[in-house]
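FW: tagging you since you asked about this chain on Friday. Here's the raw sequence from the shared folder, copied in full. Didn't touch anything.
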Amino acid sequence: MTYGGYSVSHCLHEYFIIKIPKGLPLEKAGPVLCAGITVYDPLKHFGSSTKKLTVGIIGIGGLGSMGIKLANVMGHRVVAISSSDSKKEMCKEKGADAYINFNDPESFKAETGKIDLILNTVPVAH
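HL: got it, structure written out here
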């Protein structure tokens, strides 16, 4: 027995469907489909799929971490931006080329005027 309106069958346009590769555990596929699309869509929408950019990622939580990985894999130079140095090494491991601690004015100097696109994943006004 199945429950739910779409539990037996449902027709969808192929544009909205992706095949999860055999061998990719569902617990690893889930974040790509959630946080992944949240940051991939603006990267693609704002032209980063047609040219190489320097992408700043503000807020290094779940979305920001995924943003670093995707922007890096897309061939962009990635600048991680966070409020302290506690995530600096983790950002570098995930593919960030540079790191800015926005509470340290000195850390802005090397990247001033170099960032083409900023993805802001911080859920509060700042």
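FW: The CA atoms of residues 100 and 109 lie 9 Å apart.
HL: agreed, and The beta strands are 54-58, 77-82, 98-101, 117-120.
FW: great, closing this out.
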